[in-house]
């Protein structure tokens, strides 16, 4: 009995410390916004990786004095730094686009609550709006139509995955839209096998999922033997179906976080082919946005060069000569024009930069068609590296 009382006292102390930590995190976040205000006046970049590295080295040394592992300290503060950078970027974007500051925004995404697009939408707008009005759609074209018609402010579209590659349906849809890409977010994809009732893996006979998760979990599925695959329009639809069935022989591939919204629990975790599985989403809107100078930016371009030999290479050489890094190149067939292709390029540059403007001017005569799909902040924050001698 005394042991239980002691355990309860220890847990009470831990709970109190957790509350204090949350208050300190909130206080630190508020201070970083003041840093962003200072950078806005001085037009300084959001990130100073040399300072970040010095900060981490100092914290690792201080952590060792408290008996804290260097990797633990690094991991915690890298997460804090990422949160700080993203909050500063969101603040600077609000200054650059004051017309976009609204207490609530509406966004269309694939599926219903619990889908990966749903989770990406909530994560993206958690820094940008107090209220998110959700519109679940059954197809990528429907998402774009909702935005183009003005029924919603934004559309969230998955564009590529580290395991299954590019999502061609979205690239094909971008050929026929006047929407602008205004943002991006990379969402961790943690596939689990979810069930509505207590069961075991050997009892599962049918698995429901969207096509992408099936592809990304093919190695796990190949080992399961005779299981029936049922394709659904979205992960959310698949989870809703399994919840309705309440059957120990059926399961769904989805995230544990999304499954909780449908009272599903994880029978098997981490079933994706790759342990590091991420999907990149793009955000589209009717009008483009300005990207603050302090923020690293990407510009998306679509072009067609016809069938002239070497035309694409000439375009890419222009980017190289201007010192512009191309981080994505995707080709898709042009509908109705056999053997001709449209090329999608992502370059790490702000459309307001002179070098990119000159590059587009020089590339234009080499193409049959060229269009800027949008310029937007780079959302992926790469962790600051710490020298190995500081960790050991």
Automatic annotation (TrEMBL):
Do you know which InterPro entries this protein is assigned to?
Answer: ACT-like_dom_sf, ACT_dom, Chor_mutase/pphenate_deHydtase, Chorismate_II_sf, CM_dom_sf, CM_II_prokaryot, CM_P_1, Preph_deHydtase
Q: EC number(s)?
A: 4.2.1.51, 5.4.99.5
Q: What does this protein do?
A: Catalyzes the Claisen rearrangement of chorismate to prephenate and the decarboxylation/dehydration of prephenate to phenylpyruvate.
One Pfam family matching this protein:
PDT
The name on file for this protein is Bifunctional chorismate mutase/prephenate dehydratase
**SMART domains found in the cross-reference section:** CM_2
> Could you confirm whether the keyword Cytoplasm appears in this record?
yes
**What residues does the Prephenate dehydratase domain cover?**
106-286
Where is this chain primarily localised?
cytoplasm
Pathway listed: Metabolic intermediate biosynthesis; prephenate biosynthesis; prephenate from chorismate: step 1/1; Amino-acid biosynthesis; L-phenylalanine biosynthesis; phenylpyruvate from prephenate: step 1/1
> Which reactions appear under catalytic activity for this entry?
chorismate = prephenate; prephenate + H(+) = 3-phenylpyruvate + CO2 + H2O
| Top-rank taxon | Bacteria
Keywords carried by this UniProt record: Amino-acid biosynthesis, Aromatic amino acid biosynthesis, Cytoplasm, Isomerase, Lyase, Multifunctional enzyme, Phenylalanine biosynthesis
Q: Where in the cell is it found?
A: Cytoplasm
Q: Domain Chorismate mutase: where?
A: 1-92
Q: Which residues form the ACT domain?
A: 300-377
């Amino acid at each position: 009995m005394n042991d239980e009382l002691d355990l309860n006292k220890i847990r009470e102390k831990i709970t109190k410390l957790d509350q204090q930590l949350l208050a300190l995190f909130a206080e630190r976040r508020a201070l970083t916004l003041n840093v962003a205000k200072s950078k806005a006046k001085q037009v300084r970049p959001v990130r100073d990786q040399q300072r970040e590295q010095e900060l981490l080295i100092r914290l690792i040394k201080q952590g060792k004095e408290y008996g804290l592992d260097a990797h633990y300290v690094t991991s915690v503060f890298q997460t804090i730094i990422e949160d700080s950078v993203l909050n500063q970027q969101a603040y600077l974007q609000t200054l650059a686009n004051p017309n976009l500051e609204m207490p609530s925004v509406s966004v269309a995404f694939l599926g219903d609550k619990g889908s990966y697009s749903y989770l990406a939408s909530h994560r993206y707008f958690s820094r940008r709006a107090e209220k998110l009005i959700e519109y679940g759609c059954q197809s990528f074209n429907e998402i774009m139509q909702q935005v183009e018609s003005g029924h919603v402010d934004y559309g969230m579209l998955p564009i590529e995955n580290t395991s299954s590659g590019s999502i061609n349906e979205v690239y094909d849809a971008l050929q026929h839209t006047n929407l602008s890409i205004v943002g991006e977010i990379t969402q961790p994809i943690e596939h689990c096998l979810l069930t509505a009732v207590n069961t075991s893996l050997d009892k599962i006979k049918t698995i429901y999922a969207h096509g992408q998760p099936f592809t990304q979990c093919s190695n796990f599925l190949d080992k399961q033997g005779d299981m029936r695959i049922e394709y659904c329009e979205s992960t959310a639809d698949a989870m809703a179906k399994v919840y309705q069935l309440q059957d120990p022989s059926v399961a769904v591939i989805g995230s544990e976080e999304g499954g909780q919204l449908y009272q599903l629990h994880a029978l098997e975790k981490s079933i994706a082919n790759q342990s590091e599985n991420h999907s990149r989403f793009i955000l589209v809107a009717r009008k483009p946005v300005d990207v603050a100078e302090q923020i690293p930016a990407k510009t998306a371009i679509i072009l067609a060069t016809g069938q002239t030999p070497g035309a694409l290479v000439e375009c890419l050489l222009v980017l190289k000569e201007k010192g512009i890094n191309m981080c994505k190149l995707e080709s898709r067939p042009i509908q109705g024009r056999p053997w001709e292709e449209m090329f999608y390029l992502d370059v790490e540059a702000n459309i307001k930069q002179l070098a990119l403007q000159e590059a587009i001017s020089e590339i234009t005569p080499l193409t049959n068609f060229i269009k800027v799909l949008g310029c937007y902040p780079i959302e992926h924050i790469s962790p600051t590296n710490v020298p190995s001698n500081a960790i050991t």
